[in-house]
């Protein structure tokens, strides 16, 4: 039987398949189901910077409200009703109970933010609660057209450094593909302390309803074809950066996991497939991966990783150009009129 074991963020995983942040990772029952289906690790749903800032502002408002209630007010702080537990407290409690339900499967906490602020200090509470690692999802879409590309990149590095200063557990950064030089950005983040990179985040793209004349916010589940972009960059970065590489987006079948591993991914994350088919589908994905390894006579995931990555000694730019030209030539043959 092939060995599916891998290492991600310094964590030893029984499988390269990771359940990424999503609806299933919002409850201990979901954690238990994913662990039972042999997921290598579980990424908890994201806690957002805006939520933490709003909660902090609410707490300060309550303190101000009660500050002059009594002469002894300097030692008085309002006691929140037990039924009104704060959002951060609920997240921490779900993390603790989820870790217990995961029964040894590593649990990775997730923070989503786009600015520098005291919210990053919450990362230490996640570490104290037992998170094996932290995934930092930097969702930054600058609406101010005067912001330069370098300012956007600097913001990413500053957020990472703030979180790294707050914790002593591994930190992965979930990146978007919208940088002018993804390779250089990836290197900057690794140099700033990123223990891993997750490629790529999916920005929400709203739809326009031409009948109601309204903009509709939508979240669509990914499809297999969307894996081509992250695979391209994982193949280009494999062997060039001293960090873990995780793939996300476009995982529908075990074949998609294989493709990512061949490109050089250390781990492969799935959300959409598990939403479509349930947590137990992780077991089927692992089985499909195992069946492929047996059929191709590979004895482990490690033997496959990076076999089709861009060779480290190759000119990566020329390599990509050659692939681009070859694809165009093939398209001419395929779609040219008879």
Write up what this structure looks like:
- With 338 residues, the chain is of the alpha/beta class.
- The protein has a single domain (6-311), classed as TIM Barrel, CATH 3.20.20.
- It is 41% helix and 16% strand.
- The protein has 11 helices and 12 strands.
- The protein has helices spanning 28-36, 49-66, 87-102, 122-128, 149-166, 182-191, 228-237, 254-263, 272-277, 281-295, 316-335; strands at 6-8, 11-13, 17-19, 41-48, 107-113, 133-138, 171-175, 196-199, 207-209, 214-216, 244-248, 267-270.
- The chain has an 8-stranded parallel barrel with strand order 3-4-5-6-7-8-11-12, surrounded by 9 helices. A two-stranded antiparallel ribbon has the order 1-2. The protein has a two-stranded antiparallel sheet with strand order 9-10.
- A hairpin with a 2-residue loop joins strand 1 and strand 2 (11-13).
- Helix 7 (228-237) packs parallel to helix 8.
- The longest helix has 20 residues, at 316-335.
- It is globular, with a radius of gyration of 22 Å.
- The N and C termini lie far apart (49 Å).
- Mean pLDDT is 87; it is low at 58-84.
- It holds the Pfam family DHO_dh.
- Residues 90-292 form the Dihydroorotate dehydrogenase catalytic domain.
- Pathway: Pyrimidine metabolism; UMP biosynthesis via de novo pathway.
- Its cofactor is FMN.
- This is Dihydroorotate dehydrogenase-like protein.
